[in-house]
């Protein structure tokens, strides 16, 4: 399993918030924003800053998805 930030990207689109605006609103670093874009792991502190800025819960910005290797082994 891995974490996906697709729900976060949907929220940003719905609210017409750019990634730069999210960074400024939440106070996260450009490095953290880059990790988000690459789907890499982030600390809970960073995710909570995003939630606070967007006034949402953590389960609204991330989801778990199976690894590609997990789905390939089931075929």
Radius of gyration using CA atoms only? 13 Å
- What's the CATH architecture name? Orthogonal Bundle
Number of domains: 1
Main beta sheet, described? 2 strands, antiparallel
- What is the average of the pLDDT values? 92
Tell me about this structure:
It is a single chain. The chain is mainly α and 75 residues long. The chain has a single domain, classed as Orthogonal Bundle (434 Repressor (Amino-terminal Domain)), CATH 1.10.260. Helices cover 59% and strands 8% of the residues. It has five helices and two strands. The protein has helices spanning 6-15, 19-26, 30-38, 44-54, 68-73; strands at 2-4, 63-65. It has a two-stranded antiparallel sheet. Helix 2 (19-26) packs across helix 4. The longest helix is centred in the middle third of the chain and has 11 residues, at 44-54. The chain is globular. The two termini are 17 Å apart. The model has no long low-confidence stretch (mean pLDDT 92).
Brief sketch in words of this structure:
This protein has one domain (2-73): Orthogonal Bundle (434 Repressor (Amino-terminal Domain)). The protein is 59% helix and 8% strand.
Sequence-ordered SSE layout with sheet pairings:
Blueprint: E1 2-4, H1 6-15, H2 19-26, H3 30-38, H4 44-54, E2 63-65, H5 68-73
Antiparallel strand pairs: 1-2
């Amino acid at each position: 399993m891995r974490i996906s930030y697709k729900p976060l990207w949907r929220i940003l689109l719905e609210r017409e918030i750019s990634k730069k605006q999210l960074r400024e609103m939440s106070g996260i670093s450009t490095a953290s924003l880059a990790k988000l874009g690459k789907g890499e792991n982030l600390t809970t502190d960073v995710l909570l800053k995003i939630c606070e800025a967007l006034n949402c819960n953590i389960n609204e910005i991330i989801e778990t998805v199976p690894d590609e290797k997990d789905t390939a082994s089931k075929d």
